[in-house]
Specification:
Elements lengths: L1 E2 L10 H20 L5 H6 L11 H17 L2 E7 L5 E7 L13 H15 L5 E7 L3 E8 L2 H9 L9 H15 L48 E6 L9 H10 L3 E7 L6 E2 L3 H4 L8 E2 L7 E2 L2 E2 L5 H11 L4 E3 L2 H14 L3 E6 L1 H23 L3
Parallel strand pairs: 3-4, 3-6, 6-7, 7-12
Antiparallel strand pairs: 1-2, 2-13, 4-5, 8-9, 10-11
Helix pairs in contact: 3-11, 4-5, 4-10, 6-7, 7-9
């Protein structure tokens, strides 16, 4: 147990002082009592084997004062908190490659179905937020326990050009920082050029860059935050801050990232519905097997960059998962809580100490009143 205001423990010094005054008063009265020569009369008055009971109320009152003194010092303990009592930020890739049909009916539809099942399977206390990203990342739904709002936003996602995995991690950190004062907002970075909305509705207002520096509380070890980020992507980062840079910021704040790589290594064509295309217009059934199709820097951005995602997981203390089909993705999301280890955080016991002090004090007063009530 530690104390936020240890100097307040000096208040406890008054307890032995008051106890000493009480003992002194008892001895003073005992010296006066020896003047009586009739011992039988003293025994009749109640001085005997059960005389200790009259001291119980005083001891309880002094104990209550000690508990109040301890409460004022703000005692805290380290406790393990399971993920089910925390917050999950789902960062969903809605880039154009999610129209690939190597996962039927296409990657985006399969991902929507799997995420929907995951959301509906969580308990009512878990807050879930949704970040969507393509050419830029945005918070679609702030962490909430209201599932209908979350599912409606999930059904409304549309695709866009580009994949900004790093920005998605930073946006998720900011969403957590809004809830948890122990997590600082992400450091300001140059935002990539937007290529169109990734979800129906207006473009969100950019976040304020105000906030504490990276790394949590200055000069101390970074505590593991109870909140986690689940990042679902089918490709590679194409612009903006790199996943590795974003992972460093998450690690500095104790935020764990659990990346999920989705899709096969042989996408052949893209075919999304008209609603799913949004501003990203691709001819239906576009062939992806031609030379240079989907190439970026010598590799295909239509295939998961597993090396980058594993690096993100390793830096932040999370775990990387791979899913090549709809059933595999559903299973990964369903099993995710089993892989999320509990985290430790400081629990303030001030209220508990104060409540216990009140109960002890009331007990002492009740005993005192009962002892002195008229016969």
């Amino acid at each position: 147990m530690t104390f936020g205001l240890p100097w307040m423990l000096l208040v406890l010094g008054f307890v032995p002082v008051l106890l000493g005054v009480y003992v002194w008063q008892l001895r003073r009265r005992r010296r006066q009592a020896v003047r009586f020569s009739n011992v039988a009369l003293l025994r009749t008055a109640g001085v005997g084997a059960r005389s200790w009971r009259r001291h119980v109320p005083v001891v309880l009152v002094l104990g209550a004062l000690g508990l109040l003194g301890a409460a004022s010092a703000r005692p805290t303990v380290r406790a393990e908190v399971p993920a089910s009592s925390s917050t999950v930020i789902l960062a969903l890739d809605v880039s154009g490659s999610m129209c690939a049909t190597d996962v039927l009916p296409n990657r985006l539809s399969a991902a929507q179905a799997a995420v929907r099942s995951f959301v509906q399977g969580q308990d009512g206390e878990t807050k879930i937020g949704l970040v969507v990203f393509s050419g830029f990342a945005q918070l679609a739904v702030a962490p909430t326990t209201h599932r209908d709002e979350l599912l409606a936003a999930l059904d409304a996602v549309t695709t866009g050009r580009g994949t900004t995995i790093g920005s998605a991690i930073l946006r998720s950190i900011d969403a957590i920082a809004e809830l948890d004062p122990n997590v600082a907002p992400s450091d300001p970075v140059d935002e990539p050029t937007t290529d169109g909305p990734g979800i129906g509705g207006p473009t969100p207002t950019p976040r304020s860059t105000a906030g504490g520096p990276a790394g949590g509380p200055a000069g101390g070890a970074v505590d593991v935050a109870p909140e986690i980020i689940v990042l679902l992507t089918d490709g590679a980062n194409t612009r903006g801050v790199t996943p590795s840079q974003a992972a460093e910021q998450a690690a500095a704040r104790g935020v764990r990232v659990y990346p999920i790589g989705f899709g096969t290594t042989n996408p052949t064509q893209m075919a999304c519905t008209r609603d799913q295309y949004g501003s990203f217009s691709v001819p239906s059934n576009r062939d992806l097997t031609g030379a240079g199709a989907g190439a970026l820097g010598g590799r295909s951005f239509l295939v998961v960059d597993e090396a980058a995602l594993r690096n993100v997981a390793n830096k932040t203390g999370g775990t990387y998962f791979a899913a090549t089909d709809a059933d595999g993705l559903t299973k990964v999301l369903a099993d995710l809580p089993k892989h999320v280890t509990v985290s430790e955080q400081d629990i303030d016991l001030s209220a508990a100490f104060g409540l216990l002090a009140a109960l002890v004090l009331l007990t002492g007063l009740a005993l005192s009143i009962g002892r002195h009530r008229p016969l």
